[in-house]
Design goal:
single chain; alpha+beta; three-stranded antiparallel β-sheet; about 30% strand; globular
Length: about 70
Amino acid sequence: MSDTVETAICSRAGCRAVATWRIEWRNPRIHSADRRKVWVACDEHRDYLHDFLATRDFPVQVAPLQTTIETS
């Protein structure tokens, strides 16, 4: 039996911190309503990444990131 935890790294350029937030967004000019892109963010960059997308009028949602735990 082994336990594996996937660790996501913040999407902010140059940041290597562990991500704890999921930022879902889309560009309505090129993505259909059912298409979502996902960035992940650490606590420090959550608001920065959200605001970066929101100022471009992209639909954006932020939620806690769930880590995947695989046991076999």
